[in-house]
Specification:
The chain has a 5-stranded mixed sheet with strand order 3-2-1-4-5. It has 10 helices and 5 strands, in the order H-E-E-H-E-H-E-E-H-H-H-H-H-H-H. The two termini are 35 Å apart. It is α/β, with parallel strands linked by helices. Helix 7 packs antiparallel against helix 9. The chain folds into 2 domains: 8-151, Nucleotidyltransferase, domain 5, CATH 3.30.420.10; 158-215, no CATH class.
């Protein structure tokens, strides 16, 4: 279902005097290989972009185009945090993205559930990248940054076809894992990496919708630190 992003949450905060509002989102948390990338973005108050939306609802070519529009905007502040360890700490990566901003925000809009503890006032928005343009901008920057990294990894490890599945738990990726075993960027503590045939059998039994959910980063949980 197509949803149009807006500034509803941002307007509520500005109405009570909050000036600098950052949106945060991340890409790659549910993948079997590659980094997690978090992006933080502060949009100017009068920001407009007719095609900006949740990165998962955008065609790759349009997402890349919007990414370049965003990072070329001199009034927009953005930064990314990247974690490539298999022990991924969500709080630390979001903090890293915020800390890298040249201007600290007064309030943070976070996609998903609240992050506790966190050094700044926050509003957690379920499916925030579908409803908040600030979070959507962070979603696009995080997604394109990570996809670019995965294409680079594909040149180093071409046998895994990372440019096609971006490290997520797809049938193609699991077949390549079974054939070649894990490479240095695989998260070896994730069960599908150790037993790709079992994960592949589960995808086949549950149908293609399961594979789509995996690609949307909800199919493979992150193990506790």
């Amino acid at each position: 279902m197509y949803r149009r992003c807006g500034f509803r949450h941002e307007k509520k905060l500005r109405a009570i005097g909050v000036a600098r509002i950052a949106g945060i989102d991340e890409a790659g948390r549910g993948a079997l290989a590659g980094p997690v990338v978090a992006a933080a973005v502060i949009l100017p108050e009068k920001f407009r972009h007719r095609r900006l939306n949740d990165s998962k609802q955008l065609a790759p070519e349009l997402r890349e185009e919007i990414y370049h529009d965003l990072i070329a905007n001199p009034e927009l502040r953005w930064a990314v945090g990247i974690v490539d360890s298999i022990e991924i700490d969500r709080i630390n990566i979001l903090r890293a993205a915020i800390a890298a901003l040249s201007i600290p925000p007064d309030h943070v809009l976070i996609d998903g559930l609240p992050v506790i503890p966190f050094p700044l006032p926050q509003t957690a928005v379920i499916d925030g990248d579908c409803f908040s343009l600030t979070i959507a901008a962070a979603s696009v920057i995080a997604k394109v940054t990570r996809d670019t990294m995965m294409r680079d990894f594909c040149t180093r490890f071409p046998e895994y076809c990372f440019s096609q599945h971006k490290g997520y738990c797809t049938e193609l990726h699991l077949l390549k894992l079974h054939e070649f075993g894990p490479c240095p960027i695989h998260r070896r503590s994730f069960e599908p990496v150790a037993q790709p045939l079992l994960a592949l059998e589960d995808i086949i039994q549950t149908g293609p919708s399961s594979a789509r959910r995996s690609r949307r980063e909800v199919g493979v949980p992150v193990p506790a630190a």
